[in-house]
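Data availability (excerpt). The following record was deposited with the supplementary files.
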Amino acid sequence: MTHTYSVGVTGAAGYIGSRVTRNLLADGHDVVPVDDFSVGTVETVEGTTIETLDVRNTDALAEAFAGVDAVMHLAAVSGVQDCDDDPDEAFDVNVRGTEDVARLCRETGTPLVFPTSMAILGDIVETPITVDHPRDPLNTYGLTKRMSEDDVHALAAHEFPAHVYMKSNIYGHHEIDGETVGKNTVINIFADRAKEGKHLEVHEPGTQARDFIHVKDVARAYSLSLERLVGGDVEPGAETIPLASGEEYSVLALAELVQRVTREELGVEIDIEMVENPRSAETDAADFTVDTSHARDAIGFETEHSVEETVRELVSA
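Predicted structure:
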């Protein structure tokens, strides 16, 4: 690396944000990490203390991020259930909070990297999925992320460059200062239950598919965007980039993979049980093929982790 930058990171105590912070510090960048600690639990990364700050406190945010070269905005109420449990908070954090961050970037001309989710798409009506897929979210989480995507595009126009990640389903663990950081995503849940000898519950019909991408791969993308947005010759305006691995599994196929790996690694037979799906407000598309060429062309992104490799690591750990 030939350049180092000052980078503000929101949501730095969380699942992805802590890994992004760790990578930036490892690359020699100066990082200003902040989090309101409503969910995230990581307090320090590589000796750098994460400051307690709510992104909706615009004066404090402007003071903390004064002079940074780029902003990575990961603070959010994430996940379908959390947003359904408190939709008012979800809209306030995910929409108003993101708008506040984007307005700060607009005032200062600071590049921004911001993740949405493929939940913004709703039912999958055409594959392979590209950035041009219609948006018709089925739940509060997807709606808040859809609205924030629009806000970032509107505020970035002619004012500052931004990358908006339309990311697929994340899995895997990582370590920060010797402590494991994880999240209750479907692959992680299946692997944890299999290690304990418990059966795997698959929501009906089981054919619903998703693309799965490792948290470490997602975090690496932020560093690639930093080099393009700050170190490259990029015009103002936002670009939405699908961020996916190209590894597509149905939930049932995923359970069967974990079942097989557990048998091979531990010599234990795990049962699979089909159960009623409590999440009607999610797509049950059986084809979730994603075109990964956009991320490769835009930021040189390639994944380094595979689902089966990670399942073996999780089950054997």
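Summary of structural features: The chain has two domains: 6-170+215-244+291-303, 173-209+247-287+311-316.
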